[in-house]
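Quick one from the shared queue. A colleague (R.T.) flagged 3-oxoacyl-[acyl-carrier-protein] synthase III as missing a structural entry in our internal table.

Convert sequence to structure tokens.
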Amino acid sequence: MANASGLYRPTLPTVRRRFTPSIGIYRTRFWFSEGGSKRVLCSSTVPGAEKLSPSESRVPRLVSRGCKLVGCGSAVPGLQISNDDLAKIIDTNDEWISVRTGIRNRRVLSGKDSLTALAAEAAKKALEMAEVDPDDVDLVLMCTSTPEDLFGSAPQIQKALGCKHNPLAYDITAACSGFVLGLVSAACYIRGGGFKNVLACDSEEDGLFAFDLHSDGEGQRHLRATIKENEADHVLGTNGSAVGFPPKNPSYSCIQMNGKEVFRFAVRVVPQSIEYALEKAGLTGSNIDWLLLHQANQRIIDAVATRLEVPSQRVISNLANYGNTSAASIPLALDEAVRSGKVKVGHTIAAAGFGAGLTWGSAIIRWG
């Protein structure tokens, strides 16, 4: 899913507020897109919040430029598949699925949909919310593990948006942690400079309070989709120098997951990551308005919320309607929460993604 930002001259004292809340925190004409159907718009600002000022944090702020989320958008495939639909083709039923996962429906790409078309649609909505022209975008990040081009689909999003100045666009592959990694990456670009046209804000307005990112390659055995190892079609030569050439066409295996181990992993590391990010921000769980996790499984969401002592009414979840949408799940849920009026300007959100790699990370952000 995806996003965008705005334009500003850093030397000016104020920022022209031409956006509305959205999923993104970037200071330049930054554009953030997520593989699938959701987009987030980012624009610049600096650390600080209406409810939480830097003076309340134990951690010193060393940023001269900040970033904040100013626009969001989403788009989903038209084909909806219910649990009852699945029960017609495999041995299962609605109760079995919903009790164990919390999922009742999901959206599936059909022949009429495409990843890049959905991403572009979501991105345009984010730009509209932020009131930013596509030509003011400096960077497009597409977070997906299922690009339509092995070399990356982000440039196609830039093309679909009609950006005339050829901004850089590239993919970030980190499975279900992709959005959080993309969000932090965009913030780093904004804070580090490198782009001439940026939407800057006073450091007191920064919307990214802290983040915490990790990976553990040892856990790949629990969740992976590796390339199949095929035998060679032909064996050339007699001295063994050409054995294995030419190889068969490679193909990816189906996703392989050890559900119990992934559940244990998520319930253990996600609360730790959020608590560490809160500590770095000088905040506590009582300071957050919303808990927004990767929508993998309702049991995981509930377990993490319980560990963090966050009441259910402050947990954002749309898993029942869409299932696990991987890198798109956090921005998709956020977009719905923003557009429905649940998440308001100034609200503090603890977001966390986790998945294949294994990778996981959290970010404490303020909306708008």
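The two ends are 18 Å apart (CA to CA).
The longest strand covers residues 67-74.
Added to the table.
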